[in-house]
Amino acid sequence: xxxxxxxxxxxxxxxxxxxxxxxxxxxxxxxxxxxxxxxxxxxxxxxxxxxxxxxxxxxxxxxxxxxxxxxxxxxxxxxxxxxxxxxxxxxxxxxxxxxxxxxxxxxxxxxxxxxxxxxxxxxxxxxxxxxxxxxxxxxxxxxxxxxxxxxxxxxxxxxxxxxxxxxxxxxxxxxxxxxxxxxxxxxxxxxxxxxxxxxxxxxxxxxxxxxxxxxxxxxxxxxxxxxxxxxx
Length: 232
Hints:
Blueprint: H1 2-23, H2 30-34, H3 36-56, H4 61-81, H5 86-106, H6 114-132, H7 137-145, H8 156-185, H9 189-198, H10 201-218
Helix pairs in contact: 1-3, 1-7, 3-4, 3-9, 3-10, 4-5, 6-8, 8-9, 8-10
Organism: Allokutzneria albata
Pfam families: DUF3159
Protein name: Intracellular septation protein A
């Protein structure tokens, strides 16, 4: 879920985060670099609209799906106007449409969240594998955002810090799965919508803070920082 949002935003954050860092050299963080909180809020609204529409129209899966797609379309327009890349906007809209089609096919309202369950499982696996093979996705994303390409990976200290911090990202997906799977299994649509909202923006904000804390603690005291890989 959020992994895809991070990758879609990575190409657009370098200029903004560089300007912010120049103005506030002591305040840089993963949140300022990746802008994930905004993406998390955007991801919350279509599911909330689906549940609201489903309830408002007498448990109508069709009208719930239409509500979600309409909200997704409005978000797409807003994202385009604020400068997001067209491909990212289209992918976001496609995700909403696909999520809406699943319950229309199965007739089960809670299946609106099925693609999210699959996405969270896939993200947890992808982040864990990336750490094991020593290509931590946090390094890939931040390195891309900062225009470093793969230079960060040639710095043992940065590689270790990114690897340790990436485990926080694995855990956020595992936490979501631990909450969402039982609710989906018992067809608790309203609870899924509520916990989806509760575990999107707040959990993303917490994860950004925790992974940044782990990253900073893992770097040696004399390291020049995230923007300056020590390349032999």
